[in-house]
Write a structure and sequence with these properties.
627 residues; 16 strands; 48% helix; five-stranded parallel beta sheet
Length: 627
Amino acid sequence: MRVLKLFLIILVAFFVGCSSTPKRGDTVQKDPIKASSKEAQAQFDAALAALERGEFDSADEQFRLLQAEYPNDPIAQVAELYLARAGLRNWESTPAAEYLSVFAGLADDTNVDSRIRFAAAVYLAGSTMVDRDAAMDHLKDYPGPSLSPAVLKRDRLMAWSVLTEAFSKAGRRADAIHALSKGFNDSIQAEEGLAFQSYARARAFNIVQQLSSSELAEMVNDRDSVFLRAVAGYELVRRGEGADIETRVRGELVSIGANEKAQSLKPPKAEVKPSVVGIVVPTTGANAAVGKRALNAAMLAVGAIGQPRGNTTLKVVDANQPAEAIKTQLGDAIAFVGPLDQGQAAELAPWARDEQKVMLAPVAKLPTPVETTWAFRNFISPELEPVAIAKAAVSAGTPQVVILRPNIGYGTKMATAFTEALVAAGGEVVAEYEYDRASTDYTDLAKKVAKLKPQAVFIPDTDQKVAEVTAFLANANIWGRSVTATRKSKRIEVVYLGTSLWQRPDLIRRAGTYVAGAIIPVWSSSAFDTPQTKRFFGEYAEVYGDTPGDIEAFVFDSVALLRSTLEDQGLSEPESLRAAMQGQASYTGVTGAARFDIRGEPLREPRLVEIAKGTFVPFEPSPVDPQ
């Protein structure tokens, strides 16, 4: 990450001026170059995968073999580009002159496919070992603010930076802003995204001052990019030409992390109006008990009980009534949390869009929006759990895993996802066995596992069934151990891996000795010693005399997020709140750090805990020799 940060710091200082902004051209062809035969394509794909993984020596060898076997295939030209890219390694060492000369040769050769030529120019300009001005000149006629498909995914942020400065140097300032916008969107899920976002904001607010009001007006109405709308809108407001969009722009500035810019547009405190936030949960009917727990958490979030937290008013709406009645009662709310039912949430999502009310639903799935979303999903993402636990198994030194899965859909899905993630991380599924959940005897299953003596065992099932199955495994001398513990000679010790369904005190009570050291992914847990977690779990227990679960944690975070966004940023208009929520900088709550993408989906990963000394504690791997 330090290399990208240094590179971006250099580019922030790379201010170059010029004249008018030409019309943006068509984007570079999006389709990658294909080989003329399936065999050549297969070899190319394998070499490219190695390069993307950072296996530079392997990629170098495979690309050279490809060129030797298929010298006249169109894919051989791409292989030449990637051979040079493999030579650059991780940009952390001085590249050999031969690699830079390859990029220069490809960039200057008009007979080379434009997709390769422009990618070579990007890589050449991205190196700190060349004349930057001369390298940028290769890109002065780059078709537009888009990337050649020949630029590796791992290099996209660097490429957007290079294009930004090349466009700026050529006087194509509108294209430079569009390149920053697309790079900003790419950075949301990138490992080094925060460094790029800081760079993008700094450059955009500088470059945008040099655009005409008509160019700004075009950007401020762009439906696809909140980044464009925010930076262009800010400049229009600064010029005194955007009074009608000022409130909306404040929210959009918050959404791209430009909080200081948003604060500079914030109205005096007296102008900030109290906000009404709805909470739609069942307060009557069969699910009233669940609704009550969610409501308890919501009341804590706004200070209705306990310490006051601002001037947000919570309006309670019973979900156990017709949809039209719910909509009517939410009429004066700027936003609402809920409902807890997935079908009901899907029904309310279009209405939330039409009525411009931000909706945060703690459900497993929402319909994919066809336009700018007003419905945000804030709940667990089960499909991420097996991925997280598979990576943990490999990093902890237990890559050889036996999978025991129940004969239900959940077991199949979790096992499939776990297998894919484990293999991708360099691990191995030693064996996979399906068991009948209706059975009460797992002796034969335990014997099969004992013969394999695996390093780890993954069981995607509930805590009750896990306690039952692991009891039979213990009878076969298979016991759980921590990854930091030393193996004992008289036992077959394995690291148990599970899902969030394991997170119940009953598991420890019934099978604590069997599954000691087990690692599981969780979405909320009192095990984490963060201020948000300690406060929430402590207040909930003090006020209600109970321990909150995931539903309560996500409802609390949803209400708290709405409240803090409305009050801390001085927002009072629905559009500005929606913009602030969509793509907002990471919010840290009881459920960890998260943000929403442009579809309203949460971007977060489960955290890991392990069973140690009869309780759940944060998992902090310290690998030991598995042998």
